[in-house]
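Batch job 17 of 40 flagged for manual review because the log was empty.
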Amino acid sequence: PSTQEAKTLNGQRSGPRAIIGLTADADNIADVTANGKRLTFRAATGSYKTHLEQPQAQTQQFQVPLELQNRDGTINIVVTDRDGESTQRLLRVDNRGVALLAANDIERGRDILANGYYWALLIANQNYTHVADLMTPFHDVEQLSALLIEKYGFAKERVIIVKDATQSEMRKELERIHKRVEESDSLLIYYAGHGVQENAYGGKGFWVPADGEAPSPETPYYRATWLPNILVHQAMQVSRAKHILLISDSCYSGTFRTEFTRTRGGFAQDEEFFYQLAAKTSRRGLTSGDLEPVADTGGQGHSIFAYHLLRTLKEARGMLNAHQLFQQLVAPVKNASQQSPQYFALETAGDRGGDFVFVPKP
C-alpha cells in the first residue's frame, strides 16, 4: 500500500492536535496501526488533496490521535494490505508540527539509540524455602546494575532489582516492566537462580521462584509453583519494546533455545551496522549453559558465567551488541567449566533480525 500524505489538524498555539493520513488502493487496505494501536479508516472525502492518479474515492482516510505518540514524540504508522504487504512511516511530533523521519535504517537506528530509554529487570533468587540456597545471585545482579548505570547510562530508576522473588512477584514484575517500556526502548531481563528442565513435561524449562517447591510425594503439584519459560516468552512477545535481551544464568537455561528459537543472528563491528541492528526489532536470548547444570560459584565471588559477562561488558570499547557479547564470553566460560553458553534469536517472540546494543556513555 502507498501512504500518500499526512496532514495535521492544528490548534492555535499548542501545535498539532491530530494527524490525518491518506492511503491508496482503498479496497485492498486491511489494517492501519499507530504505535501498535489499530485505527479506524474510511473513504476519503474531498477535504484532503492527494497526488494519486486514482479517483478520490479509492483512497482511505485515517486519523491518528496524538496521545498515541511515544514520550520522544514519535509515531510509527503501519498500513497493511490484504496481501500482507506493509508500508511504514515514522513521524515525530512537536510544537512546530509533524516531521517525517528518515526511512533509512541507519538513520532510524541512530534515532532509536539516541532517544529510546534503556531498562533492566534483574531477578536474583538466592535464598530458597524448599530447595538448596545459592551463593552468588545477589552479588551478580548488584554488580551488573552498577555497571549498567555507570558505564552504559541506564537511568537508576529504570534498573529494577528483585531479590528472592515468589512466582507471583516474578510474574508481576514482568507484567509491570512491559507496561512501562515504549516502542523505541530497549529492555534487558536478567535472571540468576535455580532452573529446571522437566523431561516428564515434554522437556520444558522453568525458573524456580524463591518459594518454589521441590519434587516429592508430598508435593505432587510442585510444577505449579515454578515459572515456566512460556510465560517469559509470552511477556516478550507482547512487549512494545524495540529490543529485548533475555540473559538467564540458571541450570538448563538452554531450554529457551530448544523451545522457541529458529535462527541465530549475525556478527559485525562497524558503527553503521549497529544502527542497522537498532532499526530492526529484536528478541534475543543469552544463556549461561545449554541443557545442563551450571556453576553457581567459581568466578571470584560470582558465577563463572556472570564473572565473564561482567568482565566483557567492563572491557568493551565502544558499542557492543548481544552477539558480540556472546562471542567474547563463550570460550572463557567453556574453558573454565562444563557449561556451553548459548545465543539465539527468539523469532516466535517477534524477533525481526535486530539485536540489543549496549551503548557506553559519552
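Reviewer: the log was empty due to a logging misconfiguration, but the result itself is present. The longest strand covers residues 86-94. Unflagging and moving on to job 18.
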